[in-house]
Amino acid sequence: MVTRTILNGTLENPIENGTVIMRRGSVLRCSTIGKAFFDSESQEFIDEILVTCQENQLWDVEDISYACEWQQCGDPLTPPPKSGLVLRKSDPFVPPEIGEPIFYECEVGGFNFFKHNLGNSTYQLTCGPHNTIAQDFVDWPQCVPNRNVCPALVDVSCGPPPKRLSNNGQIYLDNSTVPSSGTVMGKYGTKLRLTCGPLAKFVAQNDSKELYDEMTHTCGWDGRFHPQRVDSCIATHCLGAPMPPKSTLLELKDDREEIRELFKAYELSYKSQGNTTFHNVVEHPIPSDFCSTIRPQRFVLHGTIPASPRNQSVLATFEIVRMGIPGVAIALEIFPNERRIEQWANPMKGDPKFQVRYPVDDQSQIDVNDFFLISLTCDSLGFQMTVHGDWEFLPFPHVLRLSQSTFTNVVVEGSIDIQHMGFYSQERDFRLPRGFQAAFTCPSDHVFEDDWWHVPKTVITCGEDGTFGHVEWKNCVSVDSILSGLKIQPGQ
Question: The organism sits in which domain of life (predicted)?
Fold first, then answer.
């Protein structure tokens, strides 16, 4: 009979009179749960070996020299009672194999977070060779009750963005707004959402430099919001474009209908008179199709409100005339120090007793010294205001019948630096992407007044800072006028 060597193993067969009886189809297994035969050459575990008794009464396996080794951690470490941890077991329990994780968790109840890491409630070890733990040192955490409040919080604000978009990241806290320059208080797990507004995006601080719309900061176990960094904002669009004075005779050279329509709106829009000029009263005409069902318009107001104790509110009223009586179709009253906006209307302008106010909305997200963007649309049901491109307020129903009324002007009053204000088609994007270029040329048979020999064309570009920069417009003059001034007859 062939000799068989079995190390640390046993035969799954009965023993009769000290002799192992192995019949046809007998199976060899390791006797200890969690162990298996280990092939040192292939470095693989073998759960069982099938041996067959042949007709010549010899075994088909001549030599079995595999050692029984630990394949699983059948008896994982038991955490100390004071830790409050228990082994996470499946039902039925399946011991983890070498290299697989062993999970411990806080017992069910109020003690469900770790004392020195409130962001976690699960502790992980790794099953190592020979029924051991792969870690050299085990520092058991201690379970404690759930933590409700972050006592120490970081000041979260938008990082170093482009000059024109300074500090325009917005913070939302449990559906309410906090100032981007103030201290945020929140419960553990509270999430803050930051955006760069509709004219910019965050840029990832890694090799990819990927652009993304928002950052989320979460109140962590250590009493701080994570991540603690705030990525920089980079401009993605320009709002408004410089238009040449009519005296230059320059014309937009672009065959695209949507671009010509947009630049026509830019030409009619109100533009900033300089960052240091704050306007007390600004009037801008309201187009007749503002509330049209065919080609409705969108009102856009972009600017900043300076920090000042006197700056109680900024008011934008949409004036209307109904049956010869002036009224206010809707008013947007911004209270920057309280970060809220009120909407109201008045069929009798100037008479407070006829004023119809809408419930106060304290989630305006407009803070002092930060750029803001408000848009207002109108349809047959009422007005819809949106702040920063993605925060919609409750609709404001019409107080006056539009069929009997005529819009006149939108009037903005208060200490405000208006960067841009105008009306645009709701079907078009009122922004221009970074890198966009537009060309203005002189009419046919015209040249630049001070540069006769070059192509009379001026190109403007939406730059990386979200502006078109300073543009020097040149005047166009006819070739005939130049020749006349030189007293040269055509054809000479």
Answer: Eukaryota
